[in-house]
Every structure is written in structure tokens, then in C-alpha cells.
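thought: fold this chain, then report.
action: predict
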Amino acid sequence: MEKTPAAAGKLEDVLIAAKAASSKREAREFIKGNAVSVNGQKVNDPNMPIDLNSTYVDNVVLIKRGKKKNYAIELTEAAE
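observation:
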């Protein structure tokens, strides 16, 4: 699995940066439909902060969308 760089921020924004969703609306649909897990935990809040405290190992967050789509997101500092 290849690491995708993304800035820390809201979960919906990180999904878009990782190309796991094409728009905020689509990202919210995936999240509200219980299709997204972060580091193995199902989430249903599109505004959940994904930051350096959320990392699994070495500034990487593991995001799973559905059964087969897996993403390793390498977080950077949040863009201001």
C-alpha cells in the first residue's frame, strides 16, 4: 500500500486529499453510511479531526472505505 500525503484536518477533507472521495458530499455519504474506518475504528462524524495525535504509526493514519479500499495517509501539518 502506497502512502498518500495529506494535511491534517477534518475527516471529510482527508478523504478527498487521499482520493477516497471525489467531493465533500460523497465523503459525508460514505461516513454517514458507516463505510469508513480510521485505524480500525468505525467513524460516523465527518468533522472528526484527523491530526498527528490520530496517527497509527510514524504520522500515518490507516483509512478503510468499504471492504476493499484501503489508504495509508501520511499526515503533514494542517494548512493555515
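thought: worth noting. The radius of gyration is 11 Å.
final: C-alpha cells above.
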